[in-house]
Structure formats: structure tokens, C-alpha cells
Amino acid sequence: MIAQFRRFHVKTQIVFGRDAIHSLGELASELGAKACLLLADKALEETGVLDKARGILRDSGVRITEFLGTEPEPYLDNADAAAQLGRDGQVELVIGMGGGSVMDTAKAAAALIRNGGHAADYVGLNLVPGPGLPTIMVPTTAGTGSEVTFTAVFTNRQTKAKGGINSPRLFPDRALVDPELTLSLPPAITAATGMDALTHAIESYTSRSSAVFTEALSLAAIRLISRHLRRAVFHGNDGEAREGMLMGSLLGGMGLADAGVGAAHALAYPLGGHYRIPHGLANAVLIPHVMKFNLPAAEEKFAMIARSMGEAVEGLPPGLAGSLAVEAVARLSRDIGIPHSLNELDIPRSDIPILVEGALKVTRPVENNPRFMGAKEAEAIFERAFG
């Protein structure tokens, strides 16, 4: 009889804490790099964060080649362009500093520099043939958890379809996680990325692929995010709130790296591909509706989510307790200014068939969802999301 077992990946070395950015040069030296490709959000120029990183790397004797051309909801050719710049610069290390778009592009570029080809060649599961360059990820938003995952998500510029490069070879070597780097994040971006992190935690906790070790991470993420997100949005300079959010995002990323995500992500992909809706915002609008749909298939888990969010569930039957989780997430979303419906994002309701078709092509999250979702079910969720 073949033994049943699960593999749990814990590859990335994490450096977490305020002012951890000052370890960047040391980490680059540990990885043996004298020349790096630095990908960063352009907005970091204004905050001074990028200048700080440049200074730390140069003081450590690391030559820098920069790529600041990653687009929001990045296209595959963004990764190709970054990789070519890295090859031309003969770099030995790739650093991604920014939100999920930049970190995903950095992870893909590191793989492409060593393996050749184009990013489109590797969209799918386990298609990267060999190791990429060493990588350091430096998140400046508390959202994607990309600093500890093996996925890089892109949009095909021609087809508008979103898809991921999914390979253990994309796990970053180091994650430098510094809450101080998120203090200047505007309220709207804090809200959307924070709800993205919460969506990761909820979907990984309730997914078909969850296990004890992933559930512990996901529940801890839910507790931290639900406790700190409002404060981070309305009091952006609250260091404790920023630290709690960044830890929640990190733990959520670790959970989803093994347990995966579900229907909210599948439904969100065509919103990003066709309409350029930021992924975190799309998840934020959709997650309460997906939770309501999934509740009958995972009542006890939703009851635990409600408990983790501070809801009074003692003595309640699982279904009723679980419904409090749906209400708590919807209330949190409203409180921090997330749009209530897809109507507010100017998505044409008549495009629901296009959205359904695009969502069902994202097969892994669809199959991982705790409740079956076919075309009819996806259409019903979208209808509710339009209000």
C-alpha cells in the first residue's frame, strides 16, 4: 500500500522586524552577490525607501542594475524585459522591492535569467526546468505574501488572460520583512492589500488542500489581520498595526503556498485581466460573496474563522456561528472603504458570461474550493457581487 503523505515547503529564510532593511547588504553578501538586479515600485522613489536600499547595497559593495518598469497587474513581457536587463548587467542576484506585482516579476526574472526563454513558456505548474538566480524579496505592502510563495502571476497582453508561473524553483531565498517600509502606504492601498491578505488566509484555511500545519498559519493570519487592519488604514503611522498586518500577510502567504486558494481568486482573475482591477481590490469585493456560497460546505471552519475574528460564537450551532464570519468580513470591508459591489468598479453587468468563462479557466483554485463551483454557480456569485 502506498503511504499517503503531504510535502510542506519551508524554503525561504525570513528576516522580520523594524529596520530590517539594514540587513539587505548582509543578505546579498550571504548569497555571494557582487551585482544585483533591483526591481522596485516607482512610488518608492518618493518615499525615500529606494534611495535607502541603494545606499545599503552600494555600501556593501554590490553593483546595482535597476528595473522600475513593472506595471500594476504585470504583463508577461514585464518579466521578459527585466530578465534581459539582468542578463545584460551580468547580475548574480535579483531583489524585488514593492508589492506583489514587483515581487512576482522579480521571481520570474530570476528564473528566466538562468533558464532562458520567455515568461509565457513557464505559465503553468512545474515548468521551470532549473534553478534561477538567488532572490531577496522586500515587501512594501501587507497583502500578497509573495515573499514566501512559489507563484508569480501575470496577464497575457494579447489574450488578457491571467495565469501563474507555479514552481518550487520560484521560492525566494530570503524575505526581508520590515514594517517600517509600509508606514507611507496610502489608506486605500492599505485597505485593498490588507483584504487581499485576509482573502489568502480565509481561502487557504478552508481549501480542500489544507492540513493542520497550514491551518495554524492561516488562522493566525486571520487573527492578526482582523485585529490590525482598521488601525493600519486609519492610523497609517501606527507601528504596531503595521507590524501586525505585515506578519499576518506573511503567515497567510506561507499558508497559501501549500494549501492554495479558492473560488474568490478564480473569480478575481478575469477582473484583473480584462479590466485591470487590482487583484487585492477584486478579492476584497468578492470574498464575502464567496464565503456565503461556501458556508454550507465548511460550517465548522467558518465558525472557527468567526471565533478568530472576535465574534461571540459560544453555544451557537456551526452554521449560525459560521454566518457571523461572513458578516464580520463584510463589515470590515465596509469599514475600511472597500466598494460594496462590482457596479462601483464600472464593470458592465452584461460581461458576466465573459467573467464566468475566464474564472473557470483558473482550474486549480476552482478545484481547491471547498464547494463545487461550475458555470451556474459562478454566474450566481457574480450576480450577487453586482448587488
Describe the protein in words:
The chain is of the alpha/beta class. The protein has two domains: 13-182, Rossmann fold, CATH 3.40.50.1970; 187-385, Dehydroquinate synthase-like - alpha domain (Dehydroquinate synthase-like, alpha domain, Up-down Bundle), CATH 1.20.1090. Helices cover 51% and strands 11% of the residues. It is built from 15 helices and nine strands. The chain has helices spanning 24-30, 44-47, 49-59, 76-88, 100-115, 187-206, 212-234, 239-259, 263-275, 279-294, 299-308, 318-335, 352-360, 363-368, 375-385, and strands spanning 13-16, 35-40, 63-67, 93-98, 124-125, 135-139, 151-155, 162-166, 174-177. The strands form two sheets. A six-stranded parallel beta sheet has the order 1-9-6-4-2-3, sandwiched between helices. A three-stranded mixed beta sheet has the order 5-8-7. Strand 7 and strand 8 (162-166) form a beta hairpin. Helix 7 packs antiparallel against helix 8 and helix 9 (263-275) packs antiparallel against helix 10 (279-294). The longest helix has 23 residues, at 212-234.
